[in-house]
Predict the structure.
Amino acid sequence: ATPPAVRRTHVLNDYSFGGYLIAQGLQPFVDSRADLYGDAFLQGYQRIAQADRGALAKVLAERRIGWLLLRPGSPLAQARADAPGGRRSDADRWAVVYLRAP
């Protein structure tokens, strides 16, 4: 389970986990209410989801992301598995959680 202190930090989530995070009382990075985000944000998210290292580094720093909730096997999850500055915390067949180093 993700520690409560981590859950209070900003999350970068896979699009499909937005509704789950909202149901848990957490603010997602993105969710299925695409019309609220606008095209520019969604295009940026798409670059992040495809593991664009520059776009990812920028959002991790600017948004002070503390953890990531991703689909196993997604391009972003694969990129995080190889990236320094964090560790895999939890995983199952549905999701993987990466914690970022403080």
